[in-house]
Amino acid sequence: MLRLDASASGFAERFSTLVEAGREADTDVSDAVRGILQRVRTDGDAALLSLTRKFDRIDVAADGLAITQAEMDAACAEVAPDLMAALELAAARIRIFHEAQRPAGHEQVDTDGNRTGWRYTAVDAAGVYIPGGRATYPSSVLMNAIPAKVAGVERLVMVTPTPDGRMNPLVLAAARLAGVDEIYRVGGAQAVAALAYGTETIAPVDVITGPGNAYVAEAKRQLYGRVGIDMVAGPSEILVVADKGADADILAADLLSQAEHDPVAQAILITDSAELADAVAAAVPRALAHISTKAVAAESWDAHGAIITVAALGDAVPLIDALAPEHLALAVADPETLFQRVRHAGSVFMGYMTPEAIGDYVAGPNHTLPTGRRARFSSGLGVADFMKRTTFLACSDAGFAAIGPAAATLAEAEGLPAHALSVTRRF
Ligand SMILES: NC(=O)c1ccc[n+]([C@@H]2O[C@H](COP(=O)([O-])OP(=O)(O)OC[C@H]3O[C@@H](n4cnc5c(N)ncnc54)[C@H](O)[C@@H]3O)[C@@H](O)[C@H]2O)c1
Ligand SMILES: N[C@H](CO)Cc1c[nH]c[nH+]1
Ligand SMILES: [Zn+2]
């Protein structure tokens, strides 16, 4: 873990090294992914079955790719009542939050009677990728599938790998609660390729969302343009800003909550209290001793964690904007003032009683967020990712007469006489 003091000499260089440090897969997976995409495009189901045998170590027949209603029923029956109740609470809150996010159309009429505006419509079909390699994430099923259904997507497809044939029943229960229409037991780049190109069994979709490892992320990146994607999200990160009113043991847990996702996850604390900085540095190893994910979380904290001391909380603002973290937790007495000044963060958690982990599961806002400083230019997953905006224009006779000549003039200036004629013929 790196300790930095913003008032020490050389801070700017050391902070900029921290900001620029890449944490994403250093192995270049692009050639391997290109090969997988090509195989699926050419060989369809046969490629899916062969790659699933290789990477997930299971033999699936083509007619076994789809998860059946009977398997869904059996999975739901297996889920303990308290778990099902927690899933239902999460699903209801996520749905309410995203229903409020549905974008509205707009229409305006100018003084000459020309009507302009836009309207939103859902894509016909969307695919959500749910990771299943290292861990399974029922919460990510809800976070991806519910916004799609709120957007009005008619055909919602889920793909998820089942390594060694294992499928988490909670993932299937979450899919049923969220209204997923089709589920296929296939993962990795091959699953993303099947969603984009289609195979004999899986019909293609228009948009693909969801987190995944480097192969999944690279497949989405390469297929963008043929299909829409939400974003390229990498390893998790959290930036906690805390003042002396925060509790060191609670902060240690907050930091480790994201560190435990991945050895290359990143957890950073910024504080204006030197005592708190020391207390958190001591609390993290104590907290690590009690968690089963110690190995992963410790690797992340040791290699990518940081504690930064600033003279005043306001000094944290430019550091936050430079890091543009996926999650920003403001464990301070007056989070609102800091929040008003911050411009770049995927999602913000305000006050001592708002841990990021509550947002991962049940609060309502989406947990699929931009990482790796991409919050400078992109946003978390939302209903609009499953929709597109169509603009429209209806000219009145008087309105056409008012603006037509200028269009004809500009068309002539661009050397496009047919454009000009298309306007002037109507005069
Ligand atoms: N940002 C979020 O909201 C969020 C949520 C959940 C998970 N995640 C992240 O998603 C990632 C999930 O990764 P994962 O690996 O556990 O599951 P995954 O499902 O993304 O990947 C598993 C698949 O990767 C493919 N694969 C593995 N090795 C390969 C190789 N050598 N060549 C080609 N393909 C290969 C296989 O097809 C396998 O089925 C983690 O980094 C996790 O932190 C992010
Ligand atoms: N924090 C993760 C996104 O960075 C999402 C998640 C799923 N489950 C627990 N957490
Ligand atoms: Zn998490």
TrEMBL record:
InterPro entries: Histidinol_DH_CS, Histidinol_DH_monofunct, Hstdl_DH. Zn(2+) binds at Q258, H261, D360, H419. It is an enzyme of class 1 (oxidoreductase). Binds 1 zinc ion per subunit. Pathway: Amino-acid biosynthesis; L-histidine biosynthesis; L-histidine from 5-phospho-alpha-D-ribose 1-diphosphate: step 9/9. Signal peptide: none annotated. It holds the Pfam family Histidinol_dh. Its cofactor is Zn(2+). Its EC number is 1.1.1.23. The keyword Ubl conjugation does not apply. It comes from the Bacteria. GO terms for molecular function: histidinol dehydrogenase activity. The keyword Chloroplast does not apply. Keywords: Amino-acid biosynthesis, Histidine biosynthesis, Metal-binding, NAD, Oxidoreductase, Zinc. NAD(+) binds at Y129, Q190, N213. It catalyses: L-histidinol + 2 NAD(+) + H2O = L-histidine + 2 NADH + 3 H(+). Substrate binds at S236, Q258, H261, H327, D360, E414, H419. The active site is at E326, H327. Belongs to the histidinol dehydrogenase family. Catalyzes the sequential NAD-dependent oxidations of L-histidinol to L-histidinaldehyde and then to L-histidine. This is Histidinol dehydrogenase.
